[in-house]
Amino acid sequence: MTTLSAPSTLFGLILLLATNVTRADHEQPLDSGWVEFDNGTRVMVELATTSSQREYGLMHRNNLPENHGMLFVYPTETKQAMWMKNMLLALDVVFIADSGQIVSILQDIPPCKQEPCPVYKSLEPAKYMLEVNAGFTAQHLITPGQTAIIDYQHD
């Protein structure tokens, strides 16, 4: 039998509560909006606006409907990074500057099957990161330098 001291029990309780708060945050519906590229392609998006929502992203999802994605909204424009831990889908990732210009694209990123998971970065500073199904950017001829109109309302 293992006996825990009061500080370790308290730490365990805090960790459990933090995990439940995080889990509950992801069970809530996300705000939504859309991104339209200058070639007319439109993507309906769920918004990841908090650090917790951005951290969880599309983890553990089995599918992503066609022309849907997740838009990560960051507080500042900087080089953004992401990884594919706990992902079940391959993705394309579009990094978009505050001006709406596409600054870089990552294509066909596979789920991470074994740690350590690689970290993928934007080539230039970005305010937004759009995750869509792998192959989407090639299919719809989305390229760096194009512009995107981003429309959403956030509480």
What's a quick, concise take on this entry?
By secondary structure, this protein is of the alpha+beta class. Helix content is 21%, strand content 37%.
Features:
7-stranded mixed beta sheet; Jelly Rolls; 155 residues; alpha+beta; 3 helices
Shape: globular
Share of β-strand residues = 35-45%
How far is it from the N-terminal to the C-terminal residue, by CA?
49 Å
CATH topology: Jelly Rolls
Kindly provide the name of the CATH class.
Mainly Beta
* Largest sheet, spatial ordering of strands: 6-5-8-3-2-1-9
Number of helices: 3
Q: Structural class of the secondary elements?
A: alpha+beta
**Biggest sheet, open or closed, and with what strands and sense?**
7 strands, mixed
| Average residue-wise pLDDT | 86
Rg, alpha carbons: 18 Å
Per DSSP E runs of 2 or more residues, the count of β-strands stands at: 9
CATH superfamily: Protein of unknown function DUF192
CATH architecture: Sandwich
Task: Provide structural commentary.
- With 155 residues, this protein is of the alpha+beta class.
- It has one domain: Jelly Rolls (Sandwich).
- It has 3 helices and 9 strands; from the N terminus they run αββαββββββαβ.
- The strands form 2 sheets. It has a 7-stranded mixed β-sheet with strand order 6-5-8-3-2-1-9. The chain has a two-stranded antiparallel sheet with strand order 4-7.
- The longest helix has 22 residues.
